[in-house]
């Protein structure tokens, strides 16, 4: 998915938010803002939002420090989700259609997102209730189930820490081995290896990192090992908006699971904010 003009104010806000969370003083925040504004002039609208976001977070690391500004909120998100986990697992296992409920719970967890604004007061139980009740705005479940039957292994691209626990509920119901892919370094509140282990994903899947500290999955930026696994994967589950932005045209092996949380994504998908989506990726003209 290409960037839209409405993405640009969000890029500026994201730069300032990340700088503040990294502990930047006023002069450092000004430096991050100035460099971000200069950088934005070098990109055109053919770039994906995560490609631009990658540079923004590189600027923050260079000007403020190389740590993980979101480490505390990621730990809190994971802790809250783990408290919910026993009940979430019961909800799925006791349902008439356990796999359908587990898919919905995984999508419900996608509400945990620190890349969208300064409000981070997610009401997880209310989100679970809503997602379990609402219809899919884009519903490619038949193709998803068909691919799942044929696959010998699933490559599962993670999104955010805390959301990882919701993914675990779904993975536990899949009858094929799962390789769970996290980021190769900290960016926003995206899950890294330690976040996945804290959520218990090591108990249900092989965990690998993609070798890149980028929002979404920009395949050409990732490690050779990940690129090889991506190329060979029969079925890929791609969680969240960042993975939609980078992989919505990656071909029919890819299934995007997400909540629509911003007007730009809503415009691109053609569905309103608040929608839940299970969408099989298309194939771009360039990749044919």
Report the top-level CATH class of the largest domain: Alpha Beta
CATH homology group of the largest domain: Uncharacterised protein PF01937, DUF89, domain 3
Q: Roughly how much helix do the residues carry, as a percent range?
A: 40-55%
How many structural domains can be distinguished in the coordinates?
Answer: 2
Strand order of the largest sheet: 1-7-6-5-2-3-4
> Helical region count?
12
Q: According to CATH, what is the topology of the largest domain?
A: Rossmann fold
Give me the Rg, rounded.
Answer: 18 Å
Task: Report how far the terminal alpha carbons are from each other.
Answer: 17 Å
Structural class: alpha/beta
User: Low-confidence spans: pLDDT under 50, at least 5 residues?
Assistant: none
The second-level CATH architecture of the largest domain is 3-Layer(aba) Sandwich
String of helices and strands = HHHHHHEHEHEHEHEHEHE
Mean pLDDT: 92
Q: How many β strands by DSSP?
A: 7
Largest sheet: 7 strands, mixed
As an assembly, this protein is: single chain
What descriptive keywords fit this protein?
288 residues, alpha/beta, Rossmann fold, 2 domains, seven-stranded mixed sheet, globular
Structure characterization notes:
The chain is an alpha/beta fold. The chain has two domains: about 5-65; about 70-285, Rossmann fold (3-Layer(aba) Sandwich). Helices cover about 50% and strands about 10% of the residues. Strands 1-7-6-5-2-3-4 form a seven-stranded mixed beta sheet, sandwiched between helices. It starts with 6 loop residues before the first helix and ends in an 8-residue tail after the last strand. The model has no long low-confidence stretch (mean pLDDT about 90).
């Amino acid at each position: 998915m290409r960037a839209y003009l409405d993405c640009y104010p969000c890029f500026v806000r994201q730069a300032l938010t990340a700088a503040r969370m990294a502990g930047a003083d006023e002069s450092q925040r000004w430096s991050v803002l100035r460099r971000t504004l200069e950088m934005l002039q070098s990109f055109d609208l053919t770039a994906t939002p995560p490609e631009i976001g990658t540079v923004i977070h590189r600027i923050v690391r260079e000007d403020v420090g190389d740590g993980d500004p979101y480490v505390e909120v990621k730990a809190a998100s994971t802790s809250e989700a783990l408290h919910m986990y026993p009940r979430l697992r019961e909800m799925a296992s006791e349902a008439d259609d356990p796999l359908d409920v587990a898919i919905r719970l995984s999508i419900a967890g996608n509400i945990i997102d620190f890349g969208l604004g300064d409000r981070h007061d997610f009401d997880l139980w209310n989100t679970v209730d809503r997602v379990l009740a609402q219809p899919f705005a884009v519903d490619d479940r038949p193709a998803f189930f068909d691919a799942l039957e044929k696959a010998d292994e699933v490559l599962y691209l993670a999104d955010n820490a805390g959301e990882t626990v919701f993914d675990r509920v779904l993975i536990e119901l899949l009858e094929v081995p799962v390789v769970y892919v996290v980021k190769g370094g900290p960016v926003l509140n995206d899950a890294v290896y330690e976040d996945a282990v804290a959520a218990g994903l090591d108990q249900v899947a092989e965990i690998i990192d993609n070798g890149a500290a980028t929002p979404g999955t920009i395949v050409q930026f990732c490690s050779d090992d990940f690129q090889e696994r991506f190329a060979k994967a029969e079925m890929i589950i791609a969680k969240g908006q960042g993975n939609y932005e980078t992989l919505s045209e990656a071909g029919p092996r890819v299934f995007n699971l997400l909540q629509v949380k911003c007007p730009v994504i809503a415009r691109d998908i053609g569905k309103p904010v608040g929608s839940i989506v299970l969408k099989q990726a298309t194939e771009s003209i360039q990749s044919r």
